[in-house]
Amino acid sequence: MINLIKRLVEENFNEIVKIRRHLHKYPELSFHEHKTSAYIKSILTKWDIPFTDGIAETGVVVVLKGKNPDIKTVALRADFDALPIQEETDLAYGSVNQGVMHACGHDAHTASMLGALKVLHYLQLEWEGSIKFIFQPAEEQLPGGAQQMIKEGVLKSPNVETIIGQHVFPDMEVGKVGFRVGKYMASTDEVHIVVKGKGGHAALPQQYNNPLIVGARLILELDSFFNQYKDAPSVFAIGFIEGAGSTNVIPDRVSLKGTLRVMDEDLRKEFHSQLLAISEGISKEYNMVIDFDIRKGYPCLINDKKITEESISFAKKYLGEENVIELPVRMTAEDFSYYSQIIPSCFYRLGVRNEVKGIINGLHTSKFNIDEESLKIGMGLMAYLAIKN
Predict the structure, then answer these.
(1) In this predicted model, what pLDDT tens digit does every residue of 335-352 receive, in sequence order?
(2) Model-level pTM greater than 0.85?
(3) CATH 3.40.630.10 correct for 2-185+300-388
(4) Which of 191, 237, 253, 336 has its CA 20 to 30 Å from the CA of residue 12?
(5) Which residue in 139, 140, 334, 371 is the catalytic one?
């Protein structure tokens, strides 16, 4: 079966590269992927593969049935939204949409899964069960497309028992893939804070209540609090501060924005309570209103032990043991985590780096690119994992 899949991958590789390049050239932002969705459907129509659309507005789902289709249903998922980044590559197929770029590899995710779908469609009489292909919008922006597709029943009819996701990884050389059993990626929450004081002339301190002092105090107190939890993987950082004053003008308010990332859902709840308590204490101390808004984002991503260990074993058979590595935890977040909170899941990484070709730039950067040879592994391994799990 491995040799058969690899042969079909080679036969279809050029087409999948063209698909990836088209997607890369015409990126669309989260919740606006109408042309991307239409393009995916046009490919499926050309291949004479039925689909269901309109899930989370632009999502597309395909169900392939093998022998004994009712014995199990495995899902594969690929996201297809892009980022608000101006591309700065010299690629002939670089983005033509101003300020929008596939800087996170979702074009490769979708092309790889289309390749896996075509391979498995050809081999439909060679495997058992059913495979659901979930083409998902809006991974990059809260509340995320995964959550919406789940609400609209994407894991039902037929009921999905296992789901597998793949993500490009520019830190890892092409030819390799990476897995991690258990907790892998962090939850992500946005923190939006407005400190409301009383502005005035800087030379007349008796007439104002300076929100900048309170904002600074709040940052330091929160930083000190999180220093107690260095042994528990977590991140709290303020990345934005704005107080529209001047050298001799104290503003009425200060805005702060930041991120909270945690690897444990119980600890996440505790942190929420502690953040609000610290804010309330400082508010009372300075007699100043602090609006402290925690916007809850994606949960922790947890890779099921059984499914992930089995997938590691299958990946070693497909690629060779030396090409399958163990990954460290990441404090980045992924809305695939919503699936992982519901059913046994495996989310793994696909190496796309090639230093000889100068393909070395990170995710979410204007020069990000992939070695397209990785698409062979992307489509082939997805296909193999889908029929073996």
Answers:
(1) 999 999 999 999 999 999
(2) yes
(3) yes
(4) 336
(5) 139
